[in-house]
């Protein structure tokens, strides 16, 4: 008797066939003596559309919602180009799978889809659709190398043991259908006419949009300010010069080098002119720097998108998936940054294969410490690693991702980098000078893992000096430092916030606290879905890119500010939903209870949208005065498009438009705080204005009326 093996994709089916030396390929499957190996193409099935349950749902009308079916049903997926027709390839493959399972010489089925929620559902929805009764088994692998495939076939599990994983996968699928179908439909009917487009509303989509919106708002409301630092250059007897910074202890007895008042530093500068410094303390401390941890998917995506131009997190995932299916790396959709302890022997084999011929081969030593192997830091899948199979014929994109993963793996088994950190404290004997001058420097002692990748560093090498040595004061200068607004989000920073559901951690990204948070399941989306969410935000027109940066579009801003179902923008709420799905996967929560929560939320949300009287796009701004009109003395108030005179009905034309092209060309936006300062002082100062050549500068802007034309124009005065 034979068993039918169903792989997730044709490439994985071929890997399984190769492992058992099966060469006989038929139409849609391989045939061997023990196994018939066939495949899906990802999802062959999809959930019914609303109109499939009820013909009248073809037309969206508010009174028909909420629409929640009693039982969810599946159908062969639609063609990607024409949703009205069935995908012919999927229909053919379902027929092949059905025919293979029905054969008299088949006594069982093996599900060989990816070992995750989505993979479990891809096969299980086929079994439900075919109403399958033959015994079903599950192979659970982290890689598709011949050795692992053969081992996996010896450790098959009954598929019913995977019910919690199926419940989590289908619970996610059904919940997203309930929220997405209902709220997208109702929002589009209610507000879509004004936007002239479909308004896509999703459980993961909107909180991710809110993260980008919040950062944009921080930047637009940032009030620029300046502090000052006093720098002193000291010269040793041997003529070597080093730079130091002046520090004073504040009221909390903490050293501080930032001074708001430049005059304070100018007085100190005058007092120390022409005087000598004395080295009162030299601290030398040996420190170790560990290699960064193995990659999980989010960290891999963040690393590649920040280092290589033109890459998106979605592209990184697709390339990593290709490497996985070609047997060159382990399963990529993981949140873990460590390996299971049972993988020590396999990992040593991989290391012994990959290190051969490297210039630093003799430095590589296999190790089993907790930074690499730790069951407590692994959730379902271990970190991403290369396999023992050396790749051939990689594309340029595959080479980038593979080498990134391989190098991070090799770093774990190289020596720890060691360096000497030196701190010099210099005192100038002047009673009125309370503080000290401090210089810091670094000397590398052991290169270690940094032989592969040197971290970005601006470390200073200090001269050899001894305590109590007298040092000549070569020169001093006071630097003005402008506090900069937060940077726009990139895919790297957005992925990290999604991964930890907005939680900030004081330690490094490999801190115990952060790793525990990542593995808890309290997140926005999963490693498998985050890249798709970011791509969807771009495709729906809610966010756009500026180089590597992400920013909200006007539609995205409007959605955050005016869409009435505020829970969908709440990171805590979405994190709890994702955590519940994670608990279902672990058997700690019931799918039915989760879906009851989703149905109740959706019904309430539909009612909220229906009852919304403000109307999408009709912003209710505060009538509180922004300032006095310079023309007539009336109040300037904010509207949707401008800051204008409240006396406009009587003919006052003073207005500053929010989409002012001149201000936008300088890299700034018209905001309420900016207009308040302009009206109060007659001018507004900006740091980091952008010229046409791309350089930055500081200037005052004046908004003045041309007496001949009556129009207002901006005048610039450089600072």
Task: Please describe what this structure looks like.
This protein is an alpha+beta fold. It folds into five domains: 154 residues, 3-Layer(aba) Sandwich (Rossmann fold); 136 residues, Topoisomerase I, domain 2 (Orthogonal Bundle); 130 residues, Topoisomerase I, domain 3; 115 residues, Topoisomerase I, domain 4 (Orthogonal Bundle), CATH 1.10.290; 92 residues, no CATH class. Helix content is 34%, strand content 21%. The chain contains 20 helices and 26 strands. The strands form six sheets. It has a seven-stranded mixed beta sheet. Helix 6 packs parallel to helix 18, helix 9 packs antiparallel against helix 13 and helix 10 packs across helix 12. The protein starts with a strand and ends with a strand.
């Amino acid at each position: 008797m034979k068993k039918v093996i169903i792989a997730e994709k044709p490439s994985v089916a071929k890997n399984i066939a190769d492992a058992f030396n099966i060469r006989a390929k038929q139409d849609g499957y391989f045939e061997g003596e023990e196994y018939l190996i066939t495949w899906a193409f990802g999802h062959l099935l999809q959930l019914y559309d609303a109109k499939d349950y009820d013909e009248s749902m073809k037309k969206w009308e508010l009174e028909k919602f909420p629409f929640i079916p009693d039982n969810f049903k599946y159908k062969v997926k639609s063609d990607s180009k024409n949703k009205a027709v069935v995908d012919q390839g999927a229909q053919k493959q379902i027929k092949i799978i059905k025919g293979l399972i029905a054969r008299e010489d088949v006594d069982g089925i093996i599900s060989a889809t990816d070992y995750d929620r989505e993979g479990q559902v891809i096969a299980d929805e086929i079994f439900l659709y075919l109403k399958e009764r033959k015994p079903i088994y599950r192979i659970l692998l982290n890689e598709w190398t011949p050795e692992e495939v053969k081992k996996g076939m010896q450790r098959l599990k009954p598929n019913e043991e995977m019910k919690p994983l199926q419940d989590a996968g289908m619970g996610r699928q059904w919940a997203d259908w309930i929220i997405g179908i209902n709220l997208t439909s109702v929002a589009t009917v209610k507000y879509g006419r004004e936007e002239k487009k479909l308004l896509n509303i999703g459980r993961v989509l909107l909180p991710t949009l809110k993260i980008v919106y919040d950062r944009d708002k921080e930047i637009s409301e940032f009030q620029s300010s300046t502090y000052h630092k006093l720098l002193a250059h000291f010269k040793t007897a041997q003529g070597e010069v080093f730079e130091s910074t002046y520090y004073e202890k504040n009221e909390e007895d903490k050293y501080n080098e930032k001074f708001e008042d430049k005059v304070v530093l100018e007085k100190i500068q005058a007092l120390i002119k022409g005087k000598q410094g004395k080295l009162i303390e030299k601290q030398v401390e040996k420190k170790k720097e560990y290699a960064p941890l193995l990659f999980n998917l989010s960290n891999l995506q963040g690393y590649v998108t920040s280092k290589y131009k033109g890459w998106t997190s979605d592209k990184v995932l697709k390339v990593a998936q290709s490497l996985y299916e070609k047997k060159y790396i382990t399963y990529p959709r993981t949140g873990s940054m460590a390996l299971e302890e049972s993988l020590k022997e396999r990992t040593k084999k991989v290391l012994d294969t990959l290190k051969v011929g490297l210039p630093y081969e003799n430095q590589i030593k296999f190790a089993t410490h907790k930074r690499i192997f730790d069951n407590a830091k692994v959730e379902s899948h271990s970190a991403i690693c290369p396999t023992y199979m050396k790749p051939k014929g990689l594309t340029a994109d595959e080479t980038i991702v593979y080498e990134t993963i391989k190098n991070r793996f090799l770093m774990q088994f190289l020596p720890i980098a060691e360096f000497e950190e030196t701190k010099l404290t210099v005192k100038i004997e002047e009673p009125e000078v309370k503080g000290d001058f401090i210089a810091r420097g670094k000397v590398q002692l052991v290169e270690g893992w940094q032989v592969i990748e040197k971290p970005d560093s601006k470390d200073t090498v200090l001269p050899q000096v001894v305590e109590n040595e007298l040092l000549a004061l070569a020169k001093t200068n006071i630097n003005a430092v402008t506090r900069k607004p937060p940077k726009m989000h990139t895919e790297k920073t957005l992925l990290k916030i999604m991964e930890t559901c907005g939680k900030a951690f004081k330690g490094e990204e490999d801190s115990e606290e952060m790793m525990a948070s990542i593995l808890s399941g309290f997140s926005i989306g999963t490693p498998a879905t985050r890249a798709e969410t970011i791509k969807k935000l771009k495709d729906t027109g809610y966010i756009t890119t500026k180089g590597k940066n992400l920013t909200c579009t006007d539609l995205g801003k409007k959605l955050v500010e005016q869409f009435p179902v505020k829970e969908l923008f709440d990171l805590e709420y979405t994190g709890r939903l994702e955590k519940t799905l994670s608990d279902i996967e672990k058997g700690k929560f019931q799918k039915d209870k989760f879906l009851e929560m989703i149905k109740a939320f959706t019904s309430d949300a539909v009612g909220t949208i229906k009852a919304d009287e403000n109307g999408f796009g009709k912003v209710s701004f505060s009538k509180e005065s922004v300032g006095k009109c310079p023309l007539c003395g009336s109040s300037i108030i904010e509207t949707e498009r401008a800051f204008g005179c409240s006396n406009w009905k009587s003919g006052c034309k003073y207005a500053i438009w929010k989409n002012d092209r001149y201000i936008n060309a300088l890299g700034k936006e018209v905001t309420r705080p900016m207009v308040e300062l302009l009206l109060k002082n007659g001018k507004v100062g900006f740091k980091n204005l952008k010229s046409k050549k791309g350089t930055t500068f500081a200037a005052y802007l004046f908004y003045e009326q041309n007496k001949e034309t009556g129009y207002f124009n901006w005048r610039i005065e450089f600072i």
